[in-house]
Design brief:
Blueprint: H1 2-21, H2 31-38, H3 53-64, H4 68-92, H5 97-108, H6 112-115, H7 121-142, H8 146-161, H9 165-177, H10 188-210, H11 214-225, H12 232-238, H13 247-259, H14 268-282, H15 295-308, H16 318-336, H17 342-351, H18 370-373, H19 378-390, E1 398-402, H20 405-414, E2 422-424, E3 441-446, H21 454-458, E4 460-468, E5 480-487, H22 491-507
Parallel strand pairs: 1-2, 1-3
Antiparallel strand pairs: 3-5, 4-5
Helix pairs in contact: 1-4, 1-5, 2-20, 4-5, 4-7, 4-15, 5-15, 5-16, 7-8, 8-10, 9-14, 13-15, 19-20
């Protein structure tokens, strides 16, 4: 056991360190990370964009010093904990050190490394789904009903993290129904576990009801601007690519449920996978939404391969199973990770246009992937906003109004001016705007296509353009910073009207 724990510690250390090494220093935080980080200053039981769990971790990051190190640490930690749960699953199934190591290597050198780069709900989502499967497996193994309640707790917090856990619940119910494990539906403790899940999720459901279900507004916007560009066939075609280096482990897992006697009672996992993928496909989900399904299958696949490679000559193939995931990961490294500056990455993508790795949510192909473009230009923006702010009189209230949540969040995170807060009519920020002080000066942060109008300038005594984001690789390239000094009219009243219009627009 001591040897196993030493190996586990080593894999966890590799996982966490690797996450820091996969991002070149030229990149800032990601657009979406800023929104989640700002939620730490507006704690609630729900938000327009996401449920509340991510905001809790944001608050912990704030308490720890609010630095990029801690922003990167938590998704890396969730990835490491996912590996630990799979490790414990293998131990409970009787797997040996080879199976444990194979699963750990397969997970470390996979698409999880990409998802665990960013502070978003996805990393915790994968951890929660894996724990849900683990709890159910432990219940089947031990017969202890306490594991059903642990599963209920996981579903509850999974719901508070990301609503897609409902898709897992549906897929799992159908998977169990088609297997002998349908007897679980006769266990009264299952409904106790579901009740516990509902109790945990209740504060968010109440918040949704009290705020006219903003999740519906958010889903409407996703369907209109993002999911509409997703092809269902592409969603299914993407699935094998997430674990391309270790796909043989997943294939072994799926086969094992039908021909390896010890695993036949876990066949419901196969049906759960199929049904959940069907649900995701129907709703035009983004490909990576389904990644949470796969880690638990590494437990079964690695044990089955350990069984298959147990012969006299077959044991020589074991090192190959370790080498393949690592080798393919290294080959794909410059294609799918921001390990190089943008100019170098563009040359890589120019050599591989057929891979279509730089297609954005708008359905168009660009020079670099959207995620990478969303990690550039933010520090430059904050510096120029700070410069604009320094031009305003210290004894007058100055507000920073941005076009989108990325701009506002980046300014709030990277600003050097204590107490400075940027706002926007975009996403959750529309509910965070404080108009309690009379506004005398305004700093406008505008996207390239959205120029400052003559009417806006006429409302102030002075105006000056401070500059623009100059990084051509940034998605925010061309975004301008403009300062308006000395309001001639009641800016608070104008903004109050715009806020009400925006909230009404969201509800339509």
């Amino acid at each position: 056991m001591k040897q196993r724990n030493l190996f586990l510690f080593g894999f966890v250390l590799i996982k966490i360190l690797l996450q820091y090494l996969l991002i070149h220093s030229v990149y800032d935080l990601h657009r979406d990370e800023f929104l989640h980080l700002d939620q730490a200053h507006h704690l609630a039981w729900g938000y327009i964009s996401v449920p509340p769990v991510t905001s809790w971790f944001s608050y912990i990051i704030y308490l720890l010093g609010y630095t990029e190190f801690w922003v990167k640490f938590f998704p890396a930690l969730f990835g490491a904990l996912t590996i630990i749960i799979v490790w414990k699953t293998i131990e409970s199934l009787g797997g040996n050190l080879f199976a444990l190591s194979l699963a750990a290597i397969g997970l470390i050198f996979s698409a999880l490394a990409r998802l665990n780069l960013l502070f978003q709900p996805n990393s915790f989502d994968i951890l929660i789904w894996t724990f849900i499967f683990y709890s159910l497996i432990k219940h089947i193994q031990t017969g202890k009903n306490s594991w059903i309640y642990w599963m209920g707790i996981a579903f509850g917090f999974g719901f508070l993290n990301k609503y897609t856990v409902v898709f897992l619940a549906l897929g799992l119910a159908l998977g169990l129904f088609l297997s002998p494990e349908r007897k679980l539906f006769k266990n009264r403790h299952l409904y106790g576990g579901l009740g516990l899940a509902a109790l945990i999720a209740a504060p968010n459901l109440i918040w949704q009801w009290m705020n006219d279900f903003p999740v519906i507004w958010h889903m409407r916007m996703l369907n209109q601007y993002q999911l509409v560009n997703i092809d269902r066939i592409d969603f299914l075609a993407e699935q094998p690519l997430f674990f391309i280096g270790s796909i043989f482990i997943l294939i072994a897992a799926l086969i094992s449920f039908f021909i390896y006697p010890p695993f036949k009672k876990y066949r419901f996992l196969f049906f759960t996978l199929v049904f959940t993928l069907v649900i995701f496909t129907y709703f035009r989900a983004k490909g990576y939404y389904a990644i949470s399904l796969y880690p638990i299958f590494f437990a079964f696949g690695s044990i089955y391969l350990s069984h298959l490679l147990n012969g006299s000559w077959k044991r020589y193939l074991k090192p190959v199973t370790f080498i393949v995931p690592i080798a393919i990961f290294i080959l794909m490294l410059p294609l799918v990770f921001p390990v190089s500056p943008p100019e170098k990455l563009k040359k890589v993508y120019e050599r591989h246009p057929d891979l279509d790795l730089s297609r954005w949510e708008d359905g168009k192909t660009h020079d670099i992937p959207q995620d990478f473009a969303d990690m550039l230009g933010w520090k430059e923006l904050a510096e120029k906003v700070d410069l604009a702010y320094s031009k305003a009189p210290n004894d007058e209230y100055t507000i920073i109004i941005c076009d989108n949540y990325g701009q506002a969040g980046a300014i709030n995170f990277y600003t050097k001016i204590k107490g400075l807060q940027a706002i926007t009519m975009n996403a959750d920020y529309v509910n965070w705007i404080d108009l309690s002080k009379p506004i005398r000066n305004v700093i406008l942060v505008r996207e390239k296509e959205d120029a400052v109008s003559e009417r806006e300038i006429s409302l102030f005594e002075q105006s000056e353009e401070i500059g623009t984001i100059t990084d051509p690789n940034a998605r925010e390239f061309g975004t301008s910073i403009h300062i308006l000094l000395g309001a001639k009219t009641d800016i608070n009243e104008i903004l109050a009207g715009e806020i009400e219009e925006k909230r009404a627009e969201l509800r339509e």
